[in-house]
Amino acid sequence: MDLKGERILPVDRDTAWRALNDPERLRGAIPGCETIERTGDNEYRVVLLAALGPVRSKFRGKLRLEDVVPPERYTLRFDGEGGAAGFVKGSAAVTLFDAGDGAATRLAYTVGAQVGGRIAQLGSRLIDSAALKL
């Protein structure tokens, strides 16, 4: 699965960068995210309750930040297990750009992910739709 997109955030780039690096704010912004706990430098443990069509499962995994260039970009790497539902592995390259007069920020992302197990049987359209919500 590959996704690419952009969003305009109504805050300056430094504010957007701080929010993208605040585990508590991210937990509140990610649907189904139960916990994000720092386990080391740029490493986190994540628990996410996900509903992909008829499959609902709790995914437990590790999130790692790589290629960090504040306040411009980083790459997120995720590796998670959902028990009988399967697994998810992926990465997301996130880049921030000043938009307009600097009072807004353009967030660009490119996501690549692999899924396996029961969730892989759901089909790419359903998985892509759920991924866009996250």
How does this model look, in words?
The protein has a 7-stranded antiparallel beta sheet with strand order 1-7-6-5-4-3-2, with helices on one face. Helices cover 19% and strands 57% of the residues. It has 134 residues and is α+β, with helices and mostly antiparallel strands. The longest helix has 10 residues, at 124-133. It has 3 helices and 7 strands. The model has no long low-confidence stretch (mean pLDDT 86). It has helices at 13-20, 23-29, 124-133, and strands at residues 2-9, 33-40, 43-52, 55-69, 73-81, 87-99, 104-116.
Helical coverage, percent range: 10-25%
- Secondary-structure class: alpha+beta
| Low-pLDDT segments, ≥5 res | none
Number of strands: 7
Q: Which features would summarize this protein structure in a list?
A:
134 residues; alpha+beta; 7-stranded antiparallel β-sheet; 3 helices; 57% strand; globular
Tell me briefly what this model is.
Helices cover 19% and strands 57% of the residues. The protein is an alpha+beta fold. The longest helix is centred in the last third of the chain and has 10 residues, at 124-133.
Topology:
Blueprint: E1 2-9, H1 13-20, H2 23-29, E2 33-40, E3 43-52, E4 55-69, E5 73-81, E6 87-99, E7 104-116, H3 124-133
Antiparallel strand pairs: 1-7, 2-3, 3-4, 4-5, 5-6, 6-7
